[in-house]
Amino acid sequence: GQQLNQSPQSMFIQEGEDVSMNCTSSSIFNTWLWYKQDPGEGPVLLIALYKAGELTSNGRLTAQFGITRKDSFLNISASIPSDVGIYFCAKPGSQGNLIFGKGTKLSVKP
Amino acid sequence: GAGVSQSPRYKVAKRGQDVALRCDPISGHVSLFWYQQALGQGPEFLTYFQNEAQLDKSGLPSDRFFAERPEGSVSTLKIQRTQQEDSAVYLCASSLAPLNTEAFFGQGTRLTVV
User: Residue B77 pairs with which residues in a beta bridge?
Assistant: First the structure.
């Protein structure tokens, strides 16, 4: 079963807002990965984190690997409509496979 | 092609029917993974190939599921006697080297069993 807890489960954004989501686990990891999945598509890797405390940016996205190695957060600054989708955190399994959280769904505010 | 290609994109099967889902990984990628994604969930690992060898099939939910990659490139996931609970999106991913976590995913095949 899933071992990664993502929050929030869903959130609504207004264009221009900053967005923050996080992922926690009861066990220690050496790698955190953040993926985005658009409707009808497969997940796409956004950011990979390999060291505790590491802070990495990819354009308007910033992710950090928690010092305790049990959590990570993803921030999106100045959101735009194409940011909507589902964001997954993931950790590597024993064979290089990925273990995913349940995702945080980003939608546009009505 | 440049990316991972899966076919068909959509498949509707009657309960009890056998289905075969195809994955064309990125050329030269050694590792190939199959995942099952139920509605509202994250992808869940099914099986892993390194070249033509199936090194891990611990995620396959039952013996009705079978995967192969006979020549170390194209892979097929076969589901026999489909059941309604098999309805999901089946994702294929490939990566250049074993234990390389930067995998590239296909668009998936959405299977609906009626």
Answer: B21, B67
